[in-house]
Amino acid sequence: MPDARVTNTITGRDAFLRVLADEGVVKMFGNPGTTELPIMHALSSAPEMGYVLALQEAVVIAMADGYARASNKLVSCNVHVAPGLGNAIGSIYTSMMSGTPMIVTAGQQEQGHGLTEPLLYAPLVPIATPVVKWATEVSRIEDLPRILRRAAKIATTAPTGPVFISLPGDILNNEAAIDMGEVTRVDTAVRPSDAALEQLARRLLAAKKPVILAGHEIATSDAFAEATALAETLGAPVLQQTVAWGAHFPSEHPCYLGALNRDQKYVRRVLSDYDLMFCVGADVLKMSVWSETEPLPETTAVAMVGLRDWEMGKNFPAEIALRADVKETLKALVPLLKKLGGAQLAERAKSSLAEIAPRNWSAQRAARKAKLTAPASETPLQAEWVMMRMTDKLPKDAILVEEGLTSTATLMNYFPFRDRNSFFGNVSGGIGWGIAAAVGVQIAEPKRRVVAVIGDGSAMYSITALWTAANQKLPVIFVIANNEGYQILKNRLKLFHGNDTPIGMDFNDPPMNVAKIAEGFGVTAERVDTAAGFDAAFDKALARTNGPTLIEVMVKKS
After folding, report:
1. How many CB atoms lie within 10 A of CB 334?
2. Tell me: the pLDDT tens digits for 543-558?
3. What 3-state class would DSSP assign to 1?
């Protein structure tokens, strides 16, 4: 018997766009090739699917990553067969680390044609599998909607992340009567059991000196208010997780001390003051380079809440590990703490807040700023002065996108997180993300000003993103800190090996002029190396709202 629900006859390419739209996708980022022409053909009849062209596949994914993280929406990315997917892999890896809900598709040769191993052919699913939640290839046009529905469900279910679909050309061009299916979303906004909540509350109250480790799930669950209520109720200081890739707690709150770094000895020294670390949606002390020093002292116990159970007990055992939504958990936990702690807890919290005040983030910022002297005629500029000055000039609702490594090392000492979308950083360490991600963030947040602070080395990985910013007429301000090389590598070569004669780490023979490159992409740009020059250039950039501006700032090598 025929299925009564199947009443429409439609091409695969049109079904693809229709299902994506029904799943809430309103932006597709892409770089097309011949195998993607069926989709490009269908887009001519679907103007509501806003297509954003990027000029290389790694840039496509990074732009989409920024857009999805800022909009909290499912996003679609389309790349070109095996080489295009290969180009995109590093950026997909970054999206996997950040948990970005993303459907990545690649056009594939027609089924059967791949057997002949034509130009550009390779099996795509094995290439994508290591860096996505799920990867598959469509082999029947009738399965296309079901696969897309499953992909959307998987991408948006916590822990969220990218998925991959290989789309053979014949699937897209064929026509059939297809059941289009319906949307499924899994509600993961769950809270722990009453017994688990009480166990956690009593453990927090029993701690003599608890500290809160704030992580990105505070942002993704929109729990700024709940997280601050928790800190105030306990009178506990708050530290940001070691990889500061988002705005995870309001910087100007009296309890906030700042972000931990990835120096194991430093982190161990800081945490040794506390007998309990409560990880709220956080990565637990993720590090970069190896050290014989363990960052977690034996005297510091761990309690955790969040939706990524893989992180729980992964490297350090947790006394309490609750797989639950941060916002819903804190909404229930704070009243329980107040009830169980009573007047004694309130008095203890008041005393603790007074003790924290002289050393919190705001106090540190004021002290640091007071010591920072104006550079006068100094050239090139101190990177720290540039970070401070830029932060002072930003609108209060500005969004900062950062990938500057050494040049932005002090940025978090000056720039305050005021809401969950105020800051976006690179989670994976794979450079080239930032300049492209800023384009996606600005598309997602058209009413706010996006400023991207990028190192010269990082910028060169994805410099073509500037063309898309100009093409879309986005008012992004790109601040490129130019210290003429991979300074982080030079620093580490000297630190780890005592070698102060680096090879292959300088950009000064010949020197790069990023401002001139930007002008070639249609971006208003200038190079500055003095305080007066930076002030004037940044003021002009803020006043300009009809397109992007790039300021190349020459900074000291340090």
Report:
1. 20
2. 999 999 999 999 998 7
3. coil
